[in-house]
Design brief:
With about 220 residues, this protein is mainly beta. The protein is about 5% helix and about 60% strand. The protein has an eight-stranded antiparallel barrel with strand order 1-3-4-5-6-7-8-10. It is elongated and about 105 Å long.
Length: about 220
């Protein structure tokens, strides 16, 4: 009898030490929240050769340092083309570019340049840019050679004409935007500082030293090969 009582007490003790079972279904743990990382924009392939055409507007500052009355501001449109080659390392894009432009920029100082004209420009420059999706913002630095022409007396007499090629440094900032695998659009602002040089009127008997700089805004379209 005593053993039975001890057994009953042991069973009751075991039940009292066991955790109570839930009377309903156990709720699942809350789902873990995984942060969503936006995908990186694809790096487009800009490498290889390209060519294009552009139109622009020049606003110049010119001064006849020899005899002129002061600065004047020839301005006008331009049209031309460019060819180049891009190398690409990841998002970094760089390479050479050659450009040739015809200009209609002209103006007069009211004295000895009637008118003064910027007729054409040849450019050789290096570009470096950073690909950002379809956009390629870039900087360009190079050299330029431009033909300046002037009529000394304003009488349209060929004896009064003089022309000369001036060299200078060009610095530009722009952006190319890829619109298809082969075509891109371009916008650019360019500054040119020319070295002081002379217009040799009357066979060099009356040279005029010219200081000139140019700011040109242009838009263009290009094709990759």
């Amino acid at each position: 009898m005593g053993r039975r009582i001890v057994s009953v007490i042991a069973v009751l003790t075991a039940f009292s030490s066991t955790p109570a079972l839930a009377t309903g279904p156990i709720a699942p743990p809350p789902p873990s929240i995984v942060p969503v990382v936006p995908p990186m924009p694809p790096v487009y392939d800009w490498s290889g050769a390209y060519a294009g055409a552009a139109v622009g507007y020049s606003n110049m500052t010119v001064e006849d340092l020899s005899f002129g009355p002061g600065q004047f501001s020839p301005d006008g449109g331009s049209v031309g083309g460019f060819v180049g080659y891009n190398f690409q390392r990841g998002s970094l894009v760089f390479g050479p570019e050659f450009g040739l432009f015809s200009s209609q920029a002209d103006g007069t100082d009211g004295a000895f340049m009637r008118p003064f004209e910027l007729r054409n420009s040849i450019e050789l420059r290096g570009r470096i840019g950073y690909a950002m999706g379809r956009a390629l913002p870039y900087l360009a630095l190079g050299v330029v050679s431009s033909e300046f022409w002037a009529d000394h007396a304003g009488a349209n007499n060929p004896a009064d004409f003089a022309s000369s090629r001036f060299t200078g440094v060009t610095l530009a900032a722009g952006v190319d935007v890829m619109v298809s695998n082969s075509m891109f659009l371009r916008g650019e602002v360019q500054a040119v500082q020319y070295n002081d040089d002379t217009l040799p009127f009357y066979g060099g008997a009356d040279p005029h030293t010219i200081d000139a700089r140019d700011t040109r805004v242009s838009i263009g379209v290009g094709w990759r090969f």
